[in-house]
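Final report, results section. Input specification for complex C-07:
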Amino acid sequence: MELTLWTYEGPPHVGAMRIAASMEGVHYVLHAPQGDTYADLLFTMIERRDRRPPVTYTTFQARDLGGDTAELVQRTIADAVQRFQPEALLVGESCTAELIQDQPGALAAGMDLGGIPMVSLDLPAYSKKENWGAAETFYQLVRTLLKAQVPPPGTPKPSPQRCQQEGRRPRVNLLGPTLLGFRCRDDVKEITALLQEHGIDVAVVAPLGARPADLVRLPEADANVCLYPEVADSVCSWLERSFGLPVVRTVPIGISATEAFLKEITTLLGIAGADGAISNGGAAPGLPATAASASRLPWYSRSVDSTYLTGKRVFIFGDATHAVAAARIASKELGFEVVGLGSYSREQAREVRAAAKELGLEALITDDYLAVEKAMADAAPELVLGTQMERHSAKRLGVPCAVISTPLHVQDVPARYAPQMGWEGANVIFDSWVHPLMMGLEEHLIGMFRHDFEFVDGHRSHLGDGAPSMTPAADPVHQGHGALPGLTTSAPEPALATAPASAGAATATATLEAPPSDALELRWSPDGEAELHKIPFFVRSKVRRNTETFARERGIALIDAETLYDAKAHLSH
Amino acid sequence: MGVSVADAAPSSPELLKQSGQREVFCGLTSIVWLHRRMPDAFFLVVGSRTCAHLVQSAAGVMIFAEPRFGTAILGERDLAGLADANEELDRLVRDLLERRPEIRTLFLVGSCPSEVIKLDLSRAAERLTSQFNGRVRVLNYSGSGIETTFTQGEDNALLALMPLMPSSNESQLLIVGTLADAVEDRFVSLFAKMGIEAVRSLPPRRSTELPAVGKGTKILLAQPFLSGTSRALVSRGAELINAPYPFGVEGSRDWMAAAAAAFGVDPARVAEVLDPLVERGRRALAPHRQVLEGKRLFLMPDSQMEIPLARFLSRECGMELVEVGTPYLDRQLMAQELALLPSGTQVSEGQDVERQLERVRAARPDLVVCGLGLANPLEAEGIATKWSIELVFSPIHGCDQAGDLAELFARPLRRRQLLTFS
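Structure output:
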């Protein structure tokens, strides 16, 4: 038994729903009680889908439990097949149905479904989660549709470079994009165009937009691109084992990864230049072949305006794929300092640990968002790259945040074209990570000018009402209750920018920022406090912490302005 | 007041009973408003990851770092041995209460899985109450989808509080059902103006300050979904005031007037207090009535508020009722409301969502009141919708809120008129 307040992932059957809803012609019969239909709104509201997910729920009730729930399952399956006439049927159960052991898959297997392929889903709700459920469902569906085609053992593997003998362009499948995934719709478009430019056709995109008949065509491709390992890894591995289809595993998020992706795929397909450089694969001349001309990120990052990005402390948490990519982009392509890296994807924890180790960090692998919030506060970042959960935590801590991963909110499904992958993805990433920081700088300017008479009282922080200055030791226990909570959040604190510059307000802010007391009871003198408040708010907590460490090491109990400057001089050595 | 309950012609709407797939939340969802009503209470669902995900999705936004609700997620080990599950629950509750010392009442909320594995939460509640030795009261109720629909969760939560309510025969008016605090204050002050001073509420704002109940208690239901609670209060000697529910000018007026009558308040005094409210409420309604009048309305079953809302929208806003769905029908609690519906109104109980959607498509209503899972798909088919969940989160009770309530339904229609893309 574990206590959960907010969760990163839903149950595994929601993962199965993501596969069914992403595809065309697939229907999912879910043995589940009333209430489980809540999951429909994830698709209709967050994704703004114009139709309900293709799921029929048995809606059993307590009074059915004494009777024949198996009969209810069979009736529901028969009705759903007749009404929706799917090309493939998924049959499974949610957590409660798993306990009553009606085995809907076995029941469906005993029914005459008119020859529709049927996949019985066994998704253990008490040990697995949403992404696992999505991966397992995708794998079971592909396996069911393709098992008759699997060549006998010992059959030679087809060459991924056979397109040249066959006199055609190479073709690959893009696997893993789903609804409720992060920017999948636009990533598919971007990667399809990128591959086209390099003379590679996309054969099948799945699950997003695919029909069961498209899955049957998967082995006709020369290779699979595992775009989203959380969903497609097991399918890619099975297709590799069973059909000898090689897998391109580099996820093209960021400049270097996009280049590595192109290199991997063109080498595999035998269309790379003699020196291994990326060629256009026979495409029209003049098309962008290198990152420098294809994406603005490298130049934007080198341009002088970006020098203020240098060494920005960034905390990263998300699914494994996006978190690892973010860490690489942040550290190598934007010149940030990654001060925390973690993921809730236990299945891919190894990759995250490796990426963290490279940055001299210990990866945080957890699905406890309070542990993430604590690590975030301890790391004192200037920017958070996370999920919607981290966006909330960052807001509470008053730190700018950009969302890079699921779980997502309606605002993470933008109307505009906003991929994460490929060259345009890098442009989008530059803008969406740097803009919150620029807002941070603007905040600093508001702080600087707050004493000017032109300053209008009521200028609010963009970080939300009452965003406190960063609290290194924020104690979430004291957030959000005590006062009567309303959905419009707890009583707003005065934003730092608008707080009157009286000593009282300064003290109040100081209390808010104070880390937990140590053995030595540290105090700040009024002039020390005043000096500290001349420092821009977004580095203030760092300066405060460093100064206190410095004072503690030297046994200085009262920190005045001189101590602060001593510490500054000491630390700049 | 032109039309009141007494004037309404009795009608016998035809009831259509449906069973099948239900596109309705389970009772766990009511935690989202109950925990706001009682800031010293914590709601701990004992269930699965699905339960946690449901409450999170229904709550929509994650404003609080540590909300006063959570889920004790059962794992495979808990399923293997119930003895261990009990120990695990005790450990988890101890940790939780240590972290949250301000909590005075802990509700253990049963879910589908906990009911199916027969985890005895009432014994767990007793055990934990004695362990905490009066510092925290631990109660239990079921919000499971196999037993409860959406708002029935509140009914069960209030029933769980019942044994802790002291007995007293003192004369008092007891308003039953969660109201927004501001709306509750308004009703209390209006009753005071009419001379009814002893007004209490269930649930109270502090979980430990439970009202008494007994022979002198007259109960006035603020919400139409409290069948079990009202019966239990009556069995403790309270008297149920028959009234329509306080939605719209008419409903709110009749609701307050019924309470006043039960306390023998002079009708002239009642009129003196309420007539200005009625007049003002109608003025606030008028612009929305212009939008809604003559429009055809279809209500999908959801919050159990559908029948009173249909009554308001038909009688005060001039809408035509195509079908009024309700997850279940309590004829006793709905008697006054049903009598106020236009004769022959199609009421349906339960749901077979595909069949009901076929009826929606055939009827092409101007507005459908439905859950979030259905709203965008219907909009995409060209049918305007109003999300029903807003109705349980917004202050909509009382004459002063009637204009706002009508506006919630008028807005989608007004918006459609505003938008042009050609």
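Chain B has 17 helices and 14 strands. The longest strand of chain B covers residues 41-47. This concludes the modelling results for the funded period.
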